[in-house]
Write a structure and sequence with these properties.
Helix content: 25-40%
Order of helices and strands: HEEEHEHEHH
CATH class: Alpha Beta
Shape: elongated
CATH topology: Nucleotidyltransferase, domain 5
CATH superfamily: Ribonuclease H-like superfamily/Ribonuclease H
Number of domains: 1
Oligomer: single chain
Length: about 180
């Protein structure tokens, strides 16, 4: 079904009228890491230096929906990554997208996206239409590009002494990106 699913995701190129096309995914297991020694800043001729050992403070998950037409990102930070959190995120999307628009959601076929509770919610919200990318083709979901940016610009070299600090940094970075 690879070809059929790729054609279905063709919403990128020809979105339906009166609809919002959102690329949705979760970045789970984001670690709040504190370095065992302070990061040494970059100096002329000397790169930034950091220790390779760290102190873990737990994990969090980022749910994100990238709107194709505007580049706006709807996001939520959750402690866990289950169908309950996914449903809560769908409710957030429902509140954010104007009432008169259908919502076409491009996402992977993770089991949390197909639970009976999610299916029941979708039946009560007929404006939502799910489009699943082919298995192993996460590169077709444009929100992955957003996750790459946050990884490079915030998470990879970040120092977070708690999950709360990490959550706050993610929210601030996401809000900043959405306002550009």
């Amino acid at each position: 079904m690879f070809v059929d699913k790729v054609r279905d995701v063709g919403l990128y190129l020809d979105p339906p009228a009166k609809a919002a096309v959102l690329c949705v995914d979760e970045k789970s297991q984001i670690q709040a890491l504190d370095r065992s020694a302070p990061v040494l800043p970059m100096l002329p001729g000397v790169p930034q230096r950091q220790s390779f050992d760290y102190i873990p403070h737990g994990t969090t998950s980022l749910f994100a929906a990238l709107e194709i037409a505007t580049g706006h990102v709807i996001s939520a930070v959750k402690r866990r990554h289950r169908h309950q959190e996914f449903l809560a995120f769908l409710r957030t999307i429902d509140k954010t997208v104007p009432i008169g628009l259908d919502v076409h959601v491009i996402l992977d076929d993770l089991s949390t996206h197909k639970t009976p509770a999610v299916k029941a919610w979708l039946l009560k919200h007929p404006r939502f239409h799910l489009h699943f990318t082919p298995t192993g083709s996460s590169w077709l979901n444009l929100v992955e590009r957003f996750f790459a940016e946050i990884t490079v610009k915030l998470l990879r070299r970040g120092v977070h002494r708690s999950i709360t600090a990490l959550d706050n940094d993610i929210r601030a970075w996401t809000l900043d990106v959405s306002m550009r």
